[in-house]
Amino acid sequence: MNDPLDHPYRRAFRGRFHNTLRWAQFDALMDTLQADAGGGWYVYAVGEPPPTDPVSSEQFTVFLSEVNELLRREHDEDFCGIVYTDSFESPAYVKVFDPNNLGVSCGYSDNPPLPGWILSKIRPVDLQSDTLLPGNRRRWWRRIFGG
Predict the structure, then answer these.
(1) Which strands sit side by side in the sheet containing 83-85, from one edge to the other?
(2) Which of 2, 37, 48, 118 has the fewest beta carbons under 10 Å from its own?
(3) Share of the chain above pLDDT 90, in %
(4) Helices 57-74 and 23-35: crossing angle, nearest 10°?
(5) Most distant CA pair in the chain: distance in Å?
(6) Number of CB atoms found within 10 A of residue 49's CB
């Protein structure tokens, strides 16, 4: 694996994803993720150093609850549309876009925004975000995971 762009995490990042367009789809995905809380999940806040170890089931449960609350509070829409998963039945990679940094998360862009957070069963590598995590998101992240 000499080419860092060919890392399994990056390949998965560029893979096929399904949009949780409706809140009911988002809720079902959250239930599926919660049922697999002990499944060796990495939680990566893009703009922070990538984690080297999976989070505990308790940390994963807290993150799911907190991100659910954040999205519902800050993405005040009738639709969800900012969470993408590789599979609804057996997710292993989930992209969660920050409602305050959407840019063009759907559709085409030469420079699409990176997700705010990525949940994966693959150990993350730095996606080399050009922007640091905004202060309010950094505080939110550190409240959940410390640091």
Answers:
(1) 18-19, 83-85, 93-96, 117-120, 42-45
(2) 2
(3) 54
(4) 170
(5) 45
(6) 10
